[in-house]
Write a structure and sequence with these properties.
By secondary structure, the protein is α+β, with helices and mostly antiparallel strands. It is about 40% helix and about 30% strand. The protein is built from six helices and six strands. Strands 1, 2, 3, 4, 5 and 6 form a six-stranded mixed β-sheet that branches. Helix 3 runs antiparallel to helix 4. The chain is globular, with a radius of gyration of 18 Å. The termini are far apart.
Length: about 160
């Protein structure tokens, strides 16, 4: 016999298959660029990065899904419906040019990647930890492409699927 709480939890857990675009933004050489800098300098520079990245994502109909230190994962068409999600992820990349307009002391170099594909999206977890998430090799590919962009010292790599 399930409790009312278990039934509510079960009802709120669900996955839907849909086409989703993903954007990964990472600060290049984040740790090395702050050696010898004050904590306040790091906080201000990092805050500038977060403000610009979140603005670029949200103003182009994306949702920042994950933020860990110097890396952000955003989805387009997962949480909110966006018919032109491939176009929107490209516009978000272009909006990141605002990083170059920051004062030199707060300017950070970023690498980015964009991918798109079929994914399962929805609420998953347990009563102790439940979160909206996306499951797909496309997410892994987005992180992999960003690492390649950083390694090659190019600002971004966009999967050919986005451009089709």
């Amino acid at each position: 016999l399930k409790s009312a709480q278990e039934i509510r939890m079960h009802l709120t857990l669900s996955l839907a298959r849909k086409h989703i675009s993903f954007l990964v933004i990472n600060v290049v050489r984040f740790h090395a660029s702050f050696q010898g800098k004050s904590d306040m300098h790091i906080i201000e520079a990092h805050g500038g990065f977060i403000e610009i990245a979140v603005s670029a994502i949200v103003s182009n109909k994306g949702v920042p899904d994950m933020f860990t230190g110097d890396r952000i994962l955003a989805s387009f068409n997962a949480v909110r419906a966006v018919l032109s999600h491939k176009h929107c992820v490209c516009k978000a990349i272009l909006a990141m040019k605002a990083m170059k307009e920051l004062p030199a002391s707060r300017r950070l170099e970023v690498s980015m990647s964009a991918t798109s594909g079929l994914a399962r999206a929805g609420n998953m977890g347990t009563e102790g930890m439940k979160k909206f998430t996306c499951l797909s090799p496309t997410v892994t590919w987005a992180f992999g492409l960003e690492r390649v962009a950083s390694y090659l010292s190019v600002p971004n790599l966009i999967d050919k699927v986005i451009l089709m």
